[in-house]
Amino acid sequence: MKKTLEFRAHDGEIEDIALGPDNKVVTAGRDFQCCVWQQDQLVTGLRWHENLPGIPEKAYRYQACRDSGTFLGLGTVTGSVAIHIAFSLQRLYYVKEAHGIVVTDVAFVPESRPGRELLGGHEAALLSVAVDSRCKLHLLPTRRSLPVWLLLLLCAGLIVATILLLQLAFPGFL
Questions:
Q1: Contact 119, 109 (CB under 8 A)
Q2: How far apart are CA 6 and CA 4, in angstroms?
Q3: How many Cβ atoms sit within 10 Å of the Cβ of residue 68?
Q4: Distance between CA atoms of 171 and 39, rounded to whole angstroms?
Q5: Taking burial as the number of CB atoms within 10 A of a residue's CB, which of 22, 33, 45, 105 is the most buried?
Q6: Coiled coil located at which positions (predicted)?
Q7: How many CB atoms lie within 10 A of CB 114?
Q8: Residues 6 or more apart in contact with residue 105 via CB below 8 angstroms
Q9: Using one digit for the tens of pLDDT, what is the confidence trace for 100-142?
Q10: What gap in Å lies between CA 93 and CA 51, rounded to an integer?
Q11: Domain boundaries of the chain, sorted by first residue
Q12: Which CATH superfamily groups domain 14-140?
């Protein structure tokens, strides 16, 4: 093996590292940060005090991370578990103290046939393992979204309404 890249990702030790899509790397460090990297460039990062107002900056520390391509699963030293959208780090799911103590690892249920059966109607499933000798399954409910045909219909209606309003405001417009 040959080293191809070296850079300072965190102040202190790195707790966990996960490879994501498009050659992205996710790191969880003892400096209370979780970072998404493209090569040696920081794409985006998380800090507890910025994402959860009212919680002291050093109250939580990311301990474990996994990137499914769509979602980023995180576990903390206090036993909390979270799921974020991978590209924007918007939080979709959070359970404070899901475990009694340190979450040592998290993993997404694969999208294979048995995995889809376990998912049921949910968008994603994350397994968390902790020092409390428990393994828990976290199900992310499917987010509501508009069907594409409805979105196109609404856009067409908006265009027609705009043309009619312009015609009323400016007679002879068309």
A1: yes
A2: 7
A3: 20
A4: 58
A5: 33
A6: none
A7: 9
A8: 16, 64, 75, 128, 129
A9: 889 999 999 887 888 788 788 888 899 999 999 999 999 998 8
A10: 12
A11: 14-140, 146-173
A12: YVTN repeat-like/Quinoprotein amine dehydrogenase (2.130.10.10)
**Per residue in 47-57, pLDDT tens?**
765 655 566 65
Residue entry with tokens 């090569």: 39
Asked if 18 and 6 touch (Cβ cutoff 8 Å), the reply is no
Q: Which two tokens stand for residue 49?
A: 């005090």
CA dihedral 10, 125, 23, 92 (to 10 degrees): -60
Q: 69-87 burial, b for 16+ CB within 10 Å, e for fewer?
A: ebbbbbbbbbbbbbbbebb
pTM across the whole model: 0.71
